[in-house]
Amino acid sequence: QVQLVESGGGLVQAGGSLRLSCAASGRTFSRYVMAWFRQAPGKEREFVAGISWSGGWKHADSVKGRFTISRDSAKNTVYLQMNSLKPEDTAVYYCAADLSPLGPAVPTPFLNNYYYWGQGTQVTIAP
Known about the structure:
This protein is mainly beta. It contains no helices and eleven strands. About 0% of the residues lie in helices and about 45% in strands. The strands form two sheets. Strands 2, 4, 5, 6, 9, 10 and 11 form a seven-stranded mixed β-sheet that branches. The radius of gyration is 13 Å and the shape is globular.
């Protein structure tokens, strides 16, 4: 049974940092595209960052220069380092994985391209 479990969320002041982790189990995801999405209250779920099996990555314009996605294949874990956090970054952050291995060299930002999802971790940024 495939599981993605996010951790690392919390409450921080604006300008602070957090590192989210997504631990995968039930399958080795080193050759899968994986991504982070987020959903703020009353808004649609949106792409934050993705990383391909070959190490290619993509970050949303709203987080470029502040957030960095990475992966540790040996630990079957994907990370999202978030710096210079803003109140508008407040959301539930979700980890997602593609259905099949390999996939595109540059991750796509579309929800429908991801099959496996975690339960989410809350990130709250105080002004």
